[in-house]
Write a sequence for this structure.
C-alpha cells in the first residue's frame, strides 16, 4: 500500500493488487475510507466520510491529479 500523499488527516494510497482497474486513489483517515477514480475525477466508493469531507478530498485530488496519475502509472503500470 504505497502512500503517495498526506494532507491533514488524509492519507492517499494505492493497493498493489488493483492494476486491473482504471487509475484510482484510496483515501484513509482513521476508520473512514473512500476511493476516487482519477481520470475523470469522480467518487467510486465511500465508507464513513461525510459529504463535506468528500468535497475536500475531491478538491485535493483535483489539485494533485497529475502527480497522482503519474504515481499510479509508476507503481501499477
Amino acid at each position: 500500500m504505497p502512500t503517495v500523499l498526506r494532507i491533514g488527516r488524509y492519507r492517499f494510497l494505492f493497493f498493489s493488487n488493483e492494476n486491473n482497474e482504471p487509475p484510482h486513489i484510496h483515501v484513509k483517515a482513521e476508520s473512514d475510507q473512500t476511493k476516487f477514480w482519477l481520470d475523470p475525477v469522480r467518487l467510486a466508493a465511500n465508507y464513513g466520510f461525510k459529504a463535506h469531507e468528500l468535497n475536500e478530498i475531491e478538491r485535493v485530488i483535483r489539485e494533485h491529479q497529475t502527480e497522482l496519475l503519474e504515481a499510479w502509472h509508476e507503481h501499477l503500470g
About this structure: The mean pLDDT is 94. The chain has two helices and five strands.
